[in-house]
Write a structure and sequence with these properties.
The complex is a heterodimer of chains A (about 110) and B (about 120).
Chain A (H helix, E strand, L loop, with lengths): L4 E3 L2 E5 L4 E6 L7 E7 L6 E6 L5 E4 L2 E6 L4 E6 L8 E8 L6 E3 L3 E6 L1
Chain B lengths: L4 E3 L2 E4 L5 E6 L6 E7 L5 E8 L2 E5 L7 E4 L6 E5 L8 E8 L9 E2 L3 E5 L1
Parallel strand pairs in B: 2-11
Antiparallel strand pairs in B: 1-3, 3-8, 4-5, 4-9, 5-6, 7-8, 9-10, 9-11
The chains are: A mainly beta (about 110), B mainly beta (about 120).
């Protein structure tokens, strides 16, 4: 059974705090790791697609790292803003059809 | 910016009825997917579709489920005889060629409620 796990399940921070989430995934048959940002009533939106061990990607205040050998990825948000409030999903690809295997998500609430 | 669309946004049906969920993927995309999320659970893969055939399906995707790309633009998911446990948010996704480094674009979902 292929399992992707995320922690924490939810997080409440103050505006300006920096935060990070963890995603663990099977390290065998690894193709890629995706991070999505999902706001209620909207489509999940891709933040990063990472494929290589040691990858680091950045988009504004959000960055992510990837360790394929040990099977984990971190997502960092620097100086959280209320508009960062959303559920952050990670998903791994472990087969050549491209099917995504999702974690349960981390729900972030940023208080002004 | 191109986007994946899904209709309806919410569908209520009685147990045993057939439902068809519709998706319009991004026009130059070649790979298509259905996922679903039962309330409080993980988003789970149902089926992938490429070159007019199913490339992979999950254990959930039994004989009650089928997919079709009838006219080159729509991508549909049919549930022949709905069960209470089919109540979920259903997402369609699509992507271009390539595999590992290519993101999947998701629609906003159809919430299916089976009563």
């Amino acid at each position: 059974i292929l399992n992707v796990e995320q922690s924490p399940q939810s997080l409440h921070v103050q505006e300006g705090d920096s935060t990070n989430f963890t995603c663990s995934f099977p390290s065998s048959n690894f193709y890629a790791l995706h991070w999505y940002r999902w706001e209620t009533a909207k489509s999940p939106e891709a933040l990063f697609v990472m494929t290589l061990n040691g990858d680091e990607k950045k988009k504004g205040r959000i960055s992510a790292t990837l360790n394929t050998k040990e099977g984990y990825s971190y997502l960092y948000i620097k100086g959280s803003q209320p508009e960062d409030s959303a559920t952050y999903l990670c998903a791994s690809i472990q087969s050549n059809t491209g099917k995504l295997i999702f974690g349960q998500g981390t729900t972030l609430q940023v208080k002004p | 910016e191109p986007e994946v669309t899904q209709t309806p946004s919410h569908q209520v049906t009685q147990m045993g009825q057939e439902v068809i969920l519709r998706c319009v993927p991004i026009s130059n995309h070649l790979y298509f997917y259905w996922y679903r999320q039962i309330l409080g659970q993980k988003v789970e893969f149902l089926v992938s579709f490429y070159n007019n055939e199913i490339s992979e399906k999950s254990e959930i995707f039994d004989d009650q489920f089928s997919v079709e790309r009838p006219d080159g633009s729509n991508f549909t998911l049919k549930i022949r005889s709905t069960k209470l446990e089919d109540s979920a948010m259903y997402f369609c996704a699509s992507r271009t060629t390539g595999l590992a480094g290519v993101e999947q674009y998701f629609g906003p979902g159809t919430r299916l409620t089976v009563t």
